[in-house]
Amino acid sequence: MSGSDSDPAAATYATAQIEAALGTVFAVDRQLIADGTYFVAARDGAIVGCGGWSRRRTLFGGEHGVVRDDSLLDPAQDAARIRAFFVHPAHARQGIGRLLLAACEHAAGSAGFHRLELVATLAGEPLYRAFAFHAIERYDLQLPNGVPLPVVRMAKTLAVASAPGSALNLRHADPESR
Questions:
Q1: Exposure winner among 57, 64, 167, 175, fewest CB in 10 A?
Q2: Start-to-end Cα distance in the chain
């Protein structure tokens, strides 16, 4: 979330919205790293994107500024959460988000989940639609500065998935590198 002209979020949200969302809504939840459900995409040794899935109830946001519920979901009844997707603006629209999302879908399915749910930014909505997510509701999150942030709650049912592949180096985030 750099705010640069090449950043899809900058084309979707005002600067005040982006600044207020950084660290609260636009943030990594370290619980995903501890759970081993957060992935990092690297190209030529540089991190170009990241994203994860969760077996916990918290639907979005980082460690600060959102209501958290770290209790575990029941794969037979609940939808796994897709969380904290970010792609460096210089690498946007190059398939990195698709690779990360495919890895998350595969991992959540392997953990016994049959459905996925997420809260998408308006800039991220096209990626999730391309993966057959459908909108459940559109609403505004109230940010700490009082500015609303339009988002879309989305869901999908998982099909049998195959393992993702790419020229990118995709690995679990290292909990020691916080």
A1: 167
A2: 19
56-65, 146-155, 169-178: range with lowest mean pLDDT: 169-178
DSSP H helices in the chain: 8-12, 15-21, 30-35, 96-110, 125-130
Q: Among residues 136, 81, 74, which one has the least CA distance to residue 108?
A: 81
- In the block, tokens 């990241």 appear at 50
DSSP state at residue 28: -
Q: Could you give the CA distance from residue 58 to residue 79 in angstroms, rounded to a whole number?
A: 11
Q: Which 8-state DSSP code applies to residue 65?
A: S
Q: SS3 of 7, please? A: coil
Q: Which domains are seen in the chain, by residue range?
A: 8-173 (3.40.630.30)
Q: pTM of the entire structure?
A: 0.83
Token digits for 34?
């501890």
State the Cα–Cα distance between residues 119 and 114, nearest whole angstrom: 18
Q: How confident is the model at residue 7 (pLDDT cuts 50, 70, 90)?
A: low
All residues at 6 or more sequence positions from 163 whose CB lies less than 8 Å from its CB, including other chains:
106
